[in-house]
Design goal:
The protein is α/β, with parallel strands linked by helices. 41% of the residues lie in helices and 23% in strands. It has 3 domains: 81 residues, Winged helix-like DNA-binding domain superfamily/Winged helix DNA-binding domain (Arc Repressor Mutant, subunit A, Orthogonal Bundle); 100 residues, Periplasmic binding protein-like II (D-Maltodextrin-Binding Protein, domain 2, 3-Layer(aba) Sandwich); 106 residues, Periplasmic binding protein-like II (D-Maltodextrin-Binding Protein, domain 2). It comes from Vibrio sinensis.
């Protein structure tokens, strides 16, 4: 297989059409088609499904994609080195981040990173689902929770402490729960985006942590909606401290069980396993980690 055909194949996946790849490389659509056909002939299998509306990878195409990306990355790094532009970042990064981190600090941090490196573009999706990095073509994701996929590399950013909180109005109306099990008699607002069940609230014990199974009238996978419901006095919420940091500080929400909540999750930068991640991804991870550390008091 020719390295330039592999690079072209990775571009087809990234851009989604022959015409966009042709425009990017200043060649014709027919040349792109012939080179992909040559790559398929060399591989001995079909790599792409072609329809009038879209392109899709075959199973063999998905298997080949990471290798093609590695060739493209190695070629770019070699080109940068010999051209004397080893410190200049260029290209594109596709990433996914949780809504809380995105709203709190990452949107601004990543926009800043792009301004620092004018040749670089970043496509950042704010979503709570665990995306498939390889299948969906992500270069980097920020995840909160536990990493089980051994085909991915994770870089720890910091730990995120959770809190149980409610508005002063709710506590005045319904009373202050004196101990965690008392939460079973309260309206508990549930955050559906969790690695554990939304109704399983974890608390510290003398020998080990315990779970209190709560219930309530409202649940959501949107952190901003949960915060608004708690601020309005509709119930008790179990959320990351960073989400309600200013509300707690300003007295708009009360921390009901200081130092007793057992849930603390790591925040990780995760990327597909490669021998050497692209310099642009490594530098973006360092930039993100620095921003997290500057706001570590929001998460502690």
């Amino acid at each position: 297989m020719r390295a330039d055909d592999l690079i072209l194949f990775s571009q087809v996946f990234e851009l989604g059409s022959f015409s966009k790849v042709a425009e990017k490389n200043n060649i014709t659509n027919s040349v792109v088609s012939k080179r992909i056909a040559r790559l398929e002939q060399d591989a001995g299998v079909q790599l792409l499904y072609r329809t009038t509306r879209k392109l899709a990878l075959t199973e063999a195409g998905r298997a080949l994609l990471q290798g093609a990306k590695n060739v493209r990355q190695a070629t770019q790094e070699a080109r940068d080195t010999v051209s004397g532009f080893g410190n200049k970042l260029s290209g594109h990064i596709k990433m996914s981040v949780p809504t809380i981190s995105g709203d709190l600090l990452l949107a601004e941090a990543i926009a800043e990173f792009c301004c620092l490196h004018p040749g670089l573009t970043v496509d950042m999706s704010l979503e709570n689902r665990f995306v498939d990095l390889v299948e969906e073509g992500y270069d980097l994701v920020i995840r909160t929770g536990y990493l089980e996929d051994s085909s991915l590399i994770a870089r720890h950013m910091l730990d995120s402490q959770w809190v149980v909180c409610a508005s002063p109005q709710y506590v005045q109306r319904e009373g202050m729960p004196e101990y965690p099990k008392a939460l079973t008699t309260h309206n508990c607002l549930q955050y559906a985006y969790q690695t554990t069940g939304a109704s399983d609230w974890e608390f510290k014990g003398t020998t080990k942590n315990s779970i209190v199974r709560v219930s309530g009238s409202f649940s959501t996978d949107n952190a901003a909606a949960l915060r608004k419901a708690a601020l309005a006095g509709y119930g008790i919420a179990y959320v990351p401290r960073c989400l309600v940091y200013h509300d707690l500080k300003d007295g708009l929400l009360l921390d009901l069980f200081p130092d007793r909540v057992g849930k603390k999750l790591g925040v990780y930068a995760v990327y597909p396993f490669t021998r050497q991640p692209p310099k642009k991804v490594k530098m973006l991870i360092e930039h993100i980690k620095q921003r997290y550390q500057e706001m570590a008091h929001y998460f502690a």
